[in-house]
Specification:
- By secondary structure, this protein is α/β, with parallel strands linked by helices.
- The strands form 3 sheets. The chain has a 6-stranded mixed sheet, with helices on both faces.
- Helix 1 packs across helix 2.
- The protein starts with a helix and ends with a helix.
């Protein structure tokens, strides 16, 4: 069995197109098709099927591809064996929500690099659905997704459908983040229903749950009462969202707990939020059978440490 054919199959899964995969692999399409056919004959299974949405894996194909990715990772690890005095090249790709504690963890992780370390880290901040696609289709090493617990069944079913495994990272309630000049900044507690009557919510524009609602529109983090008309500013960049909070004094944002040190650095304050359905979960996701490398585990440990700091050093 030619393990090079594994690479071909993984590339087809990623692109969902034999034509595009052949182009990416710098080979002729007929040769790629022939290689996949030989692989299927050797395994005795059909790996891919053609659909209106492109070339997609069969159920047996998904299982094979999961193992094939692990084989390719192990081959890369064997190729990366160096003498003790030669730095080893490492690459990590992660997809995560826009969260302060994760950004801090990455900064701490990079700060801990040895001057001889040869490493590349790719971090994409996006919504949960895109993160699932990144891990499932774009060969990201692992991801972190966030959802309201009222959507738990939807995401559990969706992860199972995509052959992804998960582990719980953090259960928490959202806090309110706003400028010290916000009218409610001096209050001991903030009620979400009262807050949205007079304030503008700065929200993530791509945070949605497909097929969950008939409207098909963005589903906000928290629910508002039917008779309350809320005002929202949808944005996609976390830095711009934080800038908006400082500029628009009657705006606010819902965030996972942050340390007081972090909020002070941004010149903002946070308060605990009283709201219906204010129960959230962050989970780590990865392909079935994937074993985190030593470098990935170090990053996960940094994320857990930053989570603990935020959980116990946040809003009053």
């Amino acid at each position: 069995m030619n393990t090079l054919h594994f690479k071909y199959a993984v590339e087809i899964e990623k692109t969902r197109s034999i034509t595009q995969a052949a182009e990416n692999l710098f080979m002729a399409q007929p040769n790629l098709s022939k290689a996949i056919k030989e692989l299927e004959n050797t395994l005795g299974i059909t790996i891919f099927r053609r659909t209106s949405k492109g070339v997609i894996p069969t159920e047996q194909g998904l299982k094979f591809l999961s193992y094939a990715k692990q084989v390719l990772i192990q081959i890369d690890n064997m190729k990366a064996i160096h003498s003790p005095d030669k730095p080893q090249h490492q690459k990590i790709k992660i997809s995560v929500p826009r969260a302060g504690y994760i950004s801090k963890a990455l900064s701490d992780y990079i700060t801990g690099f040895n001057s001889l370390d040869n490493i590349e880290v790719y971090m994409r901040e996006t919504n949960s659905i895109q993160t699932i696609a990144d891990v499932r289709e774009q060969n990201y090493d692992f991801g972190i997704i966030r959802f309201n617990m009222k959507h738990e069944k939807y995401f559990n079913d969706y992860l199972r459908e995509k052959s992804l495994e998960s582990q719980i990272l953090w259960d928490f309630e959202m806090n309110v983040l706003f400028s010290p000049e916000h009218p409610l900044a001096q209050e001991d507690a903030v009620d979400y229903q009262e807050l949205i009557k007079t304030s503008i919510e700065v929200a993530q524009g791509d945070n949605f749950v497909p097929y969950y609602s008939q409207s098909g529109t963005v589903i906000g983090y928290l629910s508002s009462e039917d008779d309350i008309t809320s005002r929202k500013l949808y944005m996609f960049d976390r830095g711009s969202m934080l800038d908006a909070l400082k500029t628009v004094k009657n705006s606010f944002m819902l965030v996972s707990p942050m340390t007081n040190e972090d909020t002070a650095r941004y010149g903002l304050v946070q308060k605990k939020c009283a709201a219906k359905d204010n129960s959230f979960r962050d989970i780590i996701i990865y392909s079935s059978g994937h074993n985190l490398s030593e470098a990935e585990m170090k990053l996960v440990n940094r994320i857990c440490a930053a989570r603990n700091e935020s959980a116990f050093g946040g809003a009053i």
